[in-house]
DNA sequence: GTCTATATGTTGATAGAC
DNA sequence: GTCTATCAACATATAGAC
């Protein structure tokens, strides 16, 4: 990710901008937000902001990347711990529940997921890589759980991973449309069907965090 | 759907426009298509086209409504036949497979699904009503199948319907990103897990139509 | 009903001063 | 590095002729 003028200070400032933009979008929502709005929010002029990013599309893609980093640090177990299906389920549900508190990021994500279908769009790479990484990481865990008889082996592990991803993304659409919808409940239901024994009983409903 | 100036001829023309627009979008794709592009494609000027629709957003929403009508006529069983889980599964899979042949409509649907989150957007009503109708129709069938022991009763019927909807929508995102993805296979996998006995063995893979 | 022409607005992006 | 000022490129929507 080496860019023109990526000296230490520039990189730091860039990160600072992204963090601020992340907060703004999460709090105030993304509704076809313009570069100008983000610029105002982070305390720069529009031109000043675009000094750090090649285009609007790249800016918003980077916001998503930053979100992933932040969430990963918050919700994924440290790499030292051994992966397990229980941890995977827990991480998934925690992430989904967290998403329900940052509607703007869900909007941004969903919007770019559509725009990023275009191979020319900067978000294209992001979504392809993200999907691959997501499914490869969870694929291992699921396959292992299948061998242990915890997860159904009626369908391949890769398919299960796609199901998980699809249901998460799809529930976001339903939730944006009707915010009273409980995304986590439906995701949890899928786990319940795939791995009846592995879903924590205490995970039901909107468990106290 | 009574509109200003909805005389018979105007309504007919409107329908004609929508059918044409539907074909155009399905064939040439939706990539932030403008009113002008649609107008050119259906042989009208931009102003001429907007004579029949209040706004761009309404036009595109109506294109989706027309799509639903067309698909419903093509893929849903006649109302005389008794609903059954087998028919539901078959209809779902046929629809998903068909979608893979009209990328433009999938793009349009997904795009409006995001934009329509805004209650002010004309597509909002469409998506709310569509979701409600979809889940209410399939909810009955699923609940009945649960009573017959064909579908798992580990989760409520309504939740199962949301899962189906979410996985269909979510797989569209994955497929738009990577068109080699087999949407139907994953949807079918969900049915397989929910109702092992009810999925037609011959339905595997890309069955000959 | 349909056109041409245009009003009006917004956007992302750029040039150049400081 | 950051600003002000400005640009060109669209978009949708409307007014008015025919």
Low-confidence stretches of chain A: 1-5
Name the beta content range of chain A.
under 5%
User: What's the multimeric state?
Assistant: homodimer
Enter the CATH topology name of the domain at 59-203 in chain A: Tetracycline Repressor, domain 2
Shape of chain A: elongated
Give the helix level of chain A as a range of percent: 55-70%
Largest sheet of chain A: none
User: Which class do the helix and strand fractions of chain A yield?
Assistant: mainly alpha
Work out the number of β strands of chain A.
0
| Annotated CATH homologous superfamily of the domain at 59-203 in chain A | Tetracycline Repressor, domain 2
The secondary-structure element order of chain A is HHHHHHHHH
In CATH, what is the class of the domain at 59-203 in chain A?
Answer: Mainly Alpha
Number of helices of chain A: 9
Going by CATH, the architecture of the domain at 59-203 in chain A would be Orthogonal Bundle
Name the average pLDDT of chain A: 91
* Biggest chain-to-chain interface with counts: A-B, 41 and 41 residues
The end-to-end distance of chain A, rounded to whole angstroms, is 36 Å
Topology:
2 copies of one chain form a homodimer.
Chain A: H1 8-28, H2 35-42, H3 46-50, H4 56-75, H5 85-99, H6 103-115, H7 122-147, H8 157-177, H9 183-194
Helix pairs in contact in A: 1-2, 1-4, 1-6, 4-6, 5-9, 6-8, 7-8, 8-9
The structure holds a DNA duplex (18 and 18 nucleotides).
């Amino acid at each position: 990710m080496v860019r023109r003028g990526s000296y230490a200070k520039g990189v730091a400032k860039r990160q600072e901008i992204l963090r601020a933009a992340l907060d703004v979008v999460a709090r105030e929502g993304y509704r076809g937000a313009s570069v100008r709005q983000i610029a105002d929010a982070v305390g720069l002029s529009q031109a000043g902001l675009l000094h750090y990013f090649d285009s609007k599309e790249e800016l918003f893609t980077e916001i998503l990347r930053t979100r992933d980093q932040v969430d990963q640090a918050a919700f994924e177990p440290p790499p030292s711990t051994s992966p397990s299906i229980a941890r995977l389920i827990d991480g998934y549900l925690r992430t989904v529940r967290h998403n329900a508190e940052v509607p703007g990021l869900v909007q941004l994500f969903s919007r770019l997921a559509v725009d990023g279908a275009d191979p020319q769009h900067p978000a294209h790479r992001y979504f392809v890589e993200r999907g691959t990484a997501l499914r490869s990481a969870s694929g291992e865990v699921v396959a292992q759980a299948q061998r242990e008889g915890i997860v159904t082996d009626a369908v391949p592990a890769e398919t299960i991973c796609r199901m998980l991803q699809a249901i998460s993304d799809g529930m976001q659409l339903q939730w944006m449309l009707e915010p009273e919808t409980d995304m986590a409940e439906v995701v949890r239901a899928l786990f319940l069907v795939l791995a009846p024994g592995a879903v924590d009983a205490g995970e039901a409903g909107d468990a106290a965090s």
